[in-house]
Amino acid sequence: FDYLRSRMEAGQDAPSLRAAAEELGVSHTAVAGLLQTLQDKGWLRREGRYSRSLVLLDPGTPDPGGVRAVPIIGRVAAGLPLYAQQEWAGSVLVDSTVFRGDNLFALRVQGDSMRDAGILEGDLAICEPRQFATNGEIVVALVGGEEATVKRFFYRGDHIELRPENDRHPVQTYTLGEVLIQGKVIGIQRGPEQMAAL
Length: 198
Fold this sequence. Notes:
The protein is an alpha+beta fold and 198 residues long. It is built from 4 helices and 12 strands, in the order αααββββββββββββα. It has helices at residues 2-9, 17-24, 28-40, 192-197, and strands at 44-46, 54-56, 67-77, 82-83, 88-95, 105-110, 124-129, 138-143, 147-155, 160-163, 172-174, 179-189. β10 and β11 form a beta hairpin. The protein starts with a helix and ends with a helix.
């Protein structure tokens, strides 16, 4: 990434695989693999499948080409709550005209409790950071200070209900102090594996 950035800052075009391999002292296969890794992590975008035209991206910032990189923060359960991991797990490119909020984050969904809302295991839930919710919203909630789950939120005066969207899973009921809202789910990014399962 630093190599590509230094070239572009110097006004040079993106190098061919062969030229990059010679300058970096690695094989052109290694360069191709590194480019794919940078693209998968959301650090660059290729303008065409076979084009040498590259756009370098900074995760979390809008891209003038209509794409932005959103960081993936660990995993979250759609089923039984799962320990909320805080490590950075790469990033995902999303349409900046659709996902416009500040400081968006993404979480990988586990389980099938939100299946009937169209949220499948393996999906990336794109979230807007929030510490509040209104009834009926799909949220990321931190339960007991350490477990995160994706559910539909309902405030019932003296308790909170986190409802699944799958009849095989029970409604979860908590006291007010047990649940902290972490964000609102504003969209889903689905990979090819999930599309094949539909």
